[in-house]
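#structure-requests
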Amino acid sequence: MIEKPAALITNDAVVLGILITILGLIFITSSSEKPFFKKFYSIVPSVLLCYFIPAIFNTFNIISGETSNLYTIASRYLLPASLVLLTLSINFVALKKLGSKAVIMFLAGTAGIIIGGPIALYIVGSFYPEVALSNGEEVWKGLATIAGSWIGGGANQTAMLEVFGASKSLFAQMIAVDVLVANIWMGFLLYGAQKTDKINKWLKADNSPIIELEKNLEEEQSGKRKQLETNSLMVILMVAFGFTGIGHFLADILAPFFKLNYPELEKYSFSNPFFWLVIITTTAGVLLSFTKARKIESYGASKVGTVFLYILVATIGTHMDLAAIFNNPLLFVVGGIWITIHILVMIVVARIIKAPFFYVAVGSQANIGGAASAPIVAAAFSPFLAPVGVLLAVLGYALGTYGAYICGLILYEVFKIIS
């Protein structure tokens, strides 16, 4: 076996500087009003570049994720911290005000993803059993990361990457499937936003609650965000890393306990410390959302959590070999069938409860696209409705870890059937 030569840059401090610079340039250009950048980012999602530009550096051996400790640090410290900050901002009172149909459509989308992945894998695997393996690796582990992304977001996706142990090369393929399929569907939703009246007529839905909601949100728009000061930032970091520390402490107790006393539960990841870390920090964030701690969101807690998440995304990219992305093209077929099942579930439920298309579109995108794109779809209906997309997407952060884990277990059972 030919040993891979050392990367051009091996100093982690230098690599971190490169990654942060890449992220900074992506965010600067993605928010630019220049026509070129506006058109470019309307086609290429910024989050995709956050994965793939570091991957290019790794593919050409400029840097090496294998010899770097940055991913380990980001996944063990920044990921759980971001889970705490992203989930504590859930406003269940505001969710209740949206009405039951909004939440029902969101949950229908979540259910469609949980069942859609296993069904899609079974259908494709029945005709092409080779889809079950990619370069000898079990693909269900990678598909579980898509479930994490499509129910929650990048943090949940990375959690599933660690919990089920997919390789970085397999994960690179899953990123490609995730982004391509999700953005095709988002395009349809944005188009549908221009045909709302016709679609609502077909769904037999009353759109007047959405009009009333838009009016109320317009009146509430300004003056809620407070200025971020040093003491506020320290409180945010205290909560984030304090509960990350608690998560590590309990995980170091629970994982060995289950490994020693209940070894049969190892297949459900109960002996994996990282499993307990993400479960504990996600649950802590949800519980904090019912306390006064959620007030730190007014200072931008979720923004800090998002920064942590993007740093994590960049470190994941340093482990990707882009040459491996299209090793298994059947995975794109699985992804296409998967999202089709999600869509069908959404349509059926919407017809039954006569939900307006706005709730269908935003409920779906809050799952599939998360907080980055759900507000975009919501704003396509009205700029004042963008917060609804954020609200439902944040709910996805809380459910993403649990839902994706359940989906992963079902995917494993399907894998055993088709392989």
